[in-house]
Amino acid sequence: MKNIIKTISLLLVLTLTVSCDKDSSEDLGYAAQEERGWVQFMEDSPSEITVFLEEGGEVELDVNIQVPTTSSDLSINYNLVSVAGDDPNNYFSNSGTVIAPAGKTSYSGPDNDTGFEYNYLAMISFDLAELNDVTLTGPMTFDVELTGTSSSQITAGLEGETFKVTQRVTIVQISSLAGTYSVTELDWSWGDYWGESYQVEVAQTADPLELSVTNSAGFPAYCYPETSWLFGNGECLYDDSAPGPWAYVSYSDYFVHETTDYSIGYDADGNVTVTFGALAGDSYFNAGLTYAVKFTKL
């Protein structure tokens, strides 16, 4: 009987030993899962980041690393994809890789509803000083596209999900906006206000972030004297000699718009366009009538 008990005890010890070994293997497997996840841009970042070259500084893009932990440095890879204007790959010295030191992730953050601030965000930076001696042909628009990482377990985005892996950037050199523009009034319920065509001349002033706008000879007057566009800090003000934060329309009316309510880009023909009041411009002569104006470079 004693021998039987001893045998059963020995079998039990062996069973526990094998079971513990198996659990250890599973624990190791679970630890490897801790280094799985994805990278993405911040979900609340704007659809397009617009900066003015003359302001200087850097364009910085936060990269969210949704991984609980990393045991070694993580290389995050990205491409610069030209959309319009000059190709950023010809000017910026970015290597296409940013390194996140081992253990540095964004896992403790709002995306996981932990209530904690992000303890780390990888940063992709573009030094605008690299364009100091460059004359851009127009706004430089490009996409920064995350493509993957040095770990096969950490991907750019996640298959089947819509995490943000592309961020659009537009760099505007104020001097490149000088030239002749046609003026189109938008969003009037009966079309153009007078049915006339306008043309204006735009020149750079002594202020590197300001442009002056004057009426072209031989065309109906659109702008009041001393009209200017003032850019900077993510804003653009279209203003003239009239008192108050507004701009006159066809010498007959004025409209008010938020200084951030503008866009700069290319039309279907590749011409530079500047649009004011596209979201919330209001005409005051015809109270409550939504108004916007587009300047298209000729």
The average pLDDT is 80
Number of helices: 1
Number of strands: 21
The CATH top-level class label of the largest domain: Mainly Beta
| Integer count of domains | 2
How would you characterize the largest beta sheet? 8 strands, antiparallel
Determine Rg (CA atoms, Å).
29 Å
Bulk shape = elongated
State the helicity in percent bands.
Answer: 10-25%
Structural class: mainly beta
CATH architecture of the largest domain: Sandwich
Features:
Immunoglobulin-like; 2 domains; eight-stranded antiparallel sheet; five-stranded mixed sheet; elongated; disordered N terminus
Describe what you observe in this structure:
The protein has 298 residues and is mainly beta. It has 2 domains: 37-173, CalX-beta domain (Immunoglobulin-like), CATH 2.60.40.2030; 178-297, Lipocalin, CATH 2.40.128. It contains 1 helix and 21 strands. The chain has an 8-stranded antiparallel sheet with strand order 14-13-12-11-10-21-18-17, with no helix packed on it. Strands 2-9-7-4-5 form a 5-stranded mixed sheet, with no helix packed on it. A hairpin with a 5-residue loop joins β19 and β20. The longest helix is centred in the N-terminal third of the chain and has 32 residues, at 2-33. It starts with a helix and ends with a strand.
Short description:
This protein is mainly β and 298 residues long. 11% of the residues lie in helices and 40% in strands.
